[in-house]
Amino acid sequence: MKICxxxxxxxxxxxxxxxxxxxGLQVSVVARGAQLDAIRNRGLRxxxxxxxxxxxVRATDRPADLGHQDYVLVTxxxxxxxxxxxxxxxxxxxxxVVLPPTTSIPYWYFDNLPGxxxxxxxxxxxxxxxxxxxxxxxRVLGCVYWVATExxxxxxxxxxxxxxxxxxxxxxxxxxxxxxxxxxAMCEADLNAHVVPxxxxxxxxxxxxxxxxxxxxxxxxxxxxxxxxxPAIMKIVRRxxxxxxxxxxxxxxxxxxxxxxxxxASTKLGGKHKMSMLQDLERGRPLEVEALINSIxxxxxxxxxxxxxxxxxxxxxxxxxxxxxxxxxxxxxxxKVVVA
Length: 340
Known about the structure:
By secondary structure, this protein is α/β, with parallel strands linked by helices. It folds into two domains: 2-188, Rossmann fold, CATH 3.40.50; 199-330, N-(1-d-carboxylethyl)-l-norvaline Dehydrogenase, domain 2 (Orthogonal Bundle). The protein contains 13 helices and eleven strands. A five-stranded parallel sheet has the order 5-2-1-6-7. Strands 4-3-10-9 form a four-stranded mixed sheet. It has a two-stranded antiparallel ribbon with strand order 8-11. Helix 1 links the parallel strand 1 (2-6) and strand 2 (26-30). Helix 7 (199-220) runs antiparallel to helix 9 (231-250) and helix 9 packs across helix 12. It is globular, with a radius of gyration of 20 Å. The N and C termini lie far apart (58 Å).
């Protein structure tokens, strides 16, 4: 089985290294910059609470060199997805399967969705329907990457805490051979990829956590443990999660896998982990703000459901991101002036 992990950052590097431990799997990664150089020269190194995993995988920044894959796990940020479509398409044969990012509402979400929103195409989620036109929905599986990871050095990923859950599913809820085959390989790699009948509900569960914790962490510079220890912060967390649960219900998701209190408890398993958006802020990388905002706004436009707490959080976060973008621009080296 050939599996390409497209985007070998914190989550992708972790998944690729674990999969590479399974005999018979041909695992490759698409990476860039210092991460690519490190993986090529030294391989991937994953430090976990239970020990260290090291793996050698084929790594490239030229996806077409890898040939057609059985499965392509796209572990990029949502805002990087459309720009990567050329490279992703180069990996696809007739029966190849793609697992797009699910950090926000994915482009395929409304295809064959029971209820009044079936078949909707929402431009703010997929501008110009580029993802839909080029990938479609027939080759898609959904997967939620529920793990607290961080790249501490090029090629070195740390797994914080004990949370490790990768629910995977067909959009139509079936137990197809292709989803069972991938889930079995991931479980053999200790990735806990249980096949679920309603992957959309799991996407909401993870997205609700991301859209709640990420802005608060980025605004306060606090890690998971610090946020959980502050009663005032936790009141905001619970209000935001309740609003997001209400939005999900408007789309027919009546049974999100975890209650609010269970979601908070599961987050505590990450210990002092820093949310991914805070990691990006500290490292001077673009913040994945608009993808989360667009998901919320798109659903609000369909349902006219109020989310005052979420609105306030993201008004603050947008301003923080604007300042962050300006700081990144200021930190760029000035172009050299050539005097004739």
